[in-house]
């Protein structure tokens, strides 16, 4: 076991916290790293429709044939060394800035669903109103430390300017950090310009104001949209979450070892490229993973293979000295039912044990990411709130740990013990959403189900949530920027 | 970190398996062990209505005052040393004998619910027909390695002879190992005599034919029923699962540290007592735990405190060299809904990470243990089947791990790759019960929910299940034994 991993485990133990889980031996991890170097050198990586990228690679010492880049052994790893092990992403409210890679996971909501599960209308195309509501939920949820990006696709808005409306909603409805657009490099530039305006910052040395999801076209391919968006964000010193998109059996091999080697090679290529664009550009080692049922085509989440991938990739990220993105509360379920509960909990556990630093899809995800659900959102954040208590470690007793037992004695009970009355409620985690009545009381209340409780919780959160305050001149500047860009885009 | 724990972790890593999680540092574990010794020496343990037990303790060197036993520091631990680190519990089908403490968890179903959730009648008192059906499910489920004991209380049978009917059902409907009665020492003796008859064994040196759940009257009390049942089983060399019954805030302190110290003291007292009865008697270090919402009285499962308890007690059990019982698929939910899914998965993860050796309540538990559910049973076993794959470790690729990637190349896909076609289906775990169709196909099928799928799975399992074969003379001997005992009991 590498000594850094061991010391991490001992540090976690000393405060009674669950340490990141290491399932790869030193030899196995080194084997996978060797396979990744072989992939980069012998199979290569495509950078399509981006001659500038190919030129950068050639200049750095790679061999370029057509759109294929062959990266000699050792080169990618050397380039990756300038990426920082952690970084702060600023929030407009400085108290809500987050450290990604700081030992405690930063949690963001679901990203990208074109549909929502509406309590009244059922499953339907997502609208801007849903997007705004999900941003408000992210703003109001204590367990959510990062408001994410495309919480759902506002399909009722024109594609060409949708990113501007989403950025505006993030700025007006939340004061947590958020993500920029990666659907087009022009929209990435808009995102950076928007963030500059929001924070009132100019110049070339921006702090990290945005993170951006750079999905690799697995296997081993960066299309022009992604490589150019990466150039925009890395070039501006903004954070790229460079994510292998590993669907075992479809975009990755059916073996865990093969998938790990491929994902590592992909993230190394992307990270190295970000460093070629701007040495020191912050990068997150990303993994999105599910398996394909090769018979039916269904998505399989939270299976043992997914757990192994998630844990092992976390080890590989730590060995590279990069923050790690993985997991979330993933499920293939269509509704927040038992299926969703089992799978979401499984993938949340795998993420936590993997030592995840940036957890995208932390809340609200259904149907393999096709659907966002506010009710699932609050069920997930409730579970995450329990998970996060782990990072507080084992609470000490105040004073003699045997005090209440001495008071109560053998055969007694602790209900009236002084310690129970003084500390019981504060000490013990309690769900904010799950049923907690007796069966009789539940029957008398017409047997409300978990989703009903979740809906009440959504309404409570939205009712109680305070919109953030944004300085009027900032808001005016943002509005002017968006109005100008919309006009320009319409004129094209 | 103790070197034994470390070597365990490295061994697990070398095959790519999730190692047991250690959250207590050496210093913290030693502190808790010290507190447990203090409890035994200064607060003491009650053995009520059992003068023979008090006499045994006095003879062993403890100080007895009334029904309270004060165990001098070091005595309990010395006595515990004769309990084995692992043992084999025989099944009537030798291929189904299990090693408890052998590194892979032995999984048993829910134990004790007085109610069942009937798909037609709803929640109602459990009947013998339910018990038989649950035993058949346990027999048929691959993930279940131990048929358990009182899978539900057959409340339609007379209490005095119910245990005989349950034993008979275990013998006729399953060939997996099972548990004896602990509701009365006479019934414990019946259980041992029944097992002798089933296995056709006499004499004093029985192999382990039965395990028995000895619930401690926490805090720190063994009533006559439990201490005398323990005497029967330990005296016959049968396995006692000696379980602290830790409801934080009710039967245990509200602090994790206090609860751990109390539970350790309790299990040490019970284990030491079993060794006083018969040195070498097999014992399992048991923990049942939930927290009490000290405001509403509701049970809280799978909270961070429960996870910490489960993990830390596993470490304490390993340090004592005893097999460990904990967890299961626990939940307070009334139905197999999202609430149940999250909580069951959480407590399954905690159990697995704790290095559990004997997992009671592995399948079918609802409503804090008040209700057994066949549908929840198969949902849980489905999840357990995924968990158990962990114990196979990381599968190697057959041949070159990069073969399919070389075949497919950057930008390709693996759907038609030779490795995918050859191995995809066999390699990737797949749920046997959760929905796996597209949303359209699901809608067309009238949107069946998880419970509907589970019910089909129950029916498939029961239809396909082959009853075990029992030699006719054994069956006749069992029937004669039961008939004789029923007559004797009726005559009392």
Automatic annotation (TrEMBL), chains A, B:
Family according to the record: Belongs to the trimethylamine methyltransferase family.
Xref: InterPro entries: MttB-like_sf (IPR038601), MTTB_MeTrfase (IPR010426)
Signal peptide boundaries: none
Keywords: Methyltransferase, Transferase
GO molecular function, one term: methyltransferase activity
Name of the molecule in the record: Trimethylamine methyltransferase family protein
Matches recorded under Pfam families: MTTB
GO biological process: methylation
């Amino acid at each position: 076991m590498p000594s850094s991993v061991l010391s991490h485990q001992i540090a976690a133990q000393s405060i009674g916290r669950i340490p990141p889980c290491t399932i790869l031996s030193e030899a196995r991890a080194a084997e996978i790293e060797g396979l990744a170097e072989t992939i980069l050198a012998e199979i290569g990586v495509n950078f399509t429709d981006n001659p500038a990228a190919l030129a950068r690679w050639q200049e750095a010492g790679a061999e370029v044939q057509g759109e294929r880049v062959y990266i000699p052994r050792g080169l990618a790893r050397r380039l990756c060394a300038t990426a920082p092990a952690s970084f702060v992403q600023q929030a407009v409210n400085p108290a809500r800035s987050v450290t990604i890679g700081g030992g405690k996971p930063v949690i963001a909501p679901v990203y990208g669903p074109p549909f929502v599960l509406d309590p009244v209308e059922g499953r339907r195309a997502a609208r801007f109103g849903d997007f705004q509501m999900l941003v408000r939920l992210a703003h109001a949820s204590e367990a959510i430390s990062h408001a994410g990006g495309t919480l759902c696709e506002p399909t009722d808005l024109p594609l060409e300017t949708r990113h501007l409306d989403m950025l505006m909603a993030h700025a007006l409805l939340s004061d947590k950090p958020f993500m920029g657009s990666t659907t087009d490099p022009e929209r990435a530039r808009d995102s950076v310009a928007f963030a500059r305006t929001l924070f009132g910052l100019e110049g070339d040395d921006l702090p990290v104001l945005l993170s951006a999801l750079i999905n690799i076209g697995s296997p081993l391919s960066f299309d022009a949209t992604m490589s150019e968006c990466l150039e925009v964000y890395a070039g501006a010193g903004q954070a790229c979450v460079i994510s292998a998109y590993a669907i075992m059996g479809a975009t990755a091999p059916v073996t865990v070892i093969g998938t790990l080697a491929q994902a590592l090679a992909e993230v190394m290529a992307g990270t190295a490229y970000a460093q070629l664009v701007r040495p020191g550009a912050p990068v997150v080692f990303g993994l999105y993973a599910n398996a394909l049922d090769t018979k039916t085509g269904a998505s399989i989440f939270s299976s043992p293979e997914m757990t192994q991938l998630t844990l092992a990739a976390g080890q590989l990220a730590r060995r590279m000295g990069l923050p790690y993105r993985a997991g979330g509360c993933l499920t293939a379920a269509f509704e927040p039912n038992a299926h969703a509960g089992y799978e979401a909990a499984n993938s949340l556990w795998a993420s936590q044990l993997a030592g995840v630093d940036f957890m995208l899809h932390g809340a609200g995800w259904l149907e393999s990411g096709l659907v966002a659900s506010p009710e699932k959102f609050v069920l997930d954040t409730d579970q995450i709130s329990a998970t996060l208590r782990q990072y507080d470690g084992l609470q000490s007793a105040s004073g003699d740990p045997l005090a209440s037992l001495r008071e109560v004695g053998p055969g007694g009970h602790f209900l009236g013990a002084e310690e129970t009355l003084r500390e019981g409620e504060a000490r013990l985690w309690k769900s904010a959403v799950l049923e907690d009545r007796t069966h009789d009381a539940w029957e008398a209340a017409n047997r409300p189900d978990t989703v009903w409780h979740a809906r009440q919780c959504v309404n409570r959160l939205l009712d109680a949530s305070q919109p953030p305050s944004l300085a009027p001149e900032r808001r005016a500047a943002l509005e002017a920027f968006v109005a100008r860009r919309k006009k320009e885009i319409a004129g094209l």
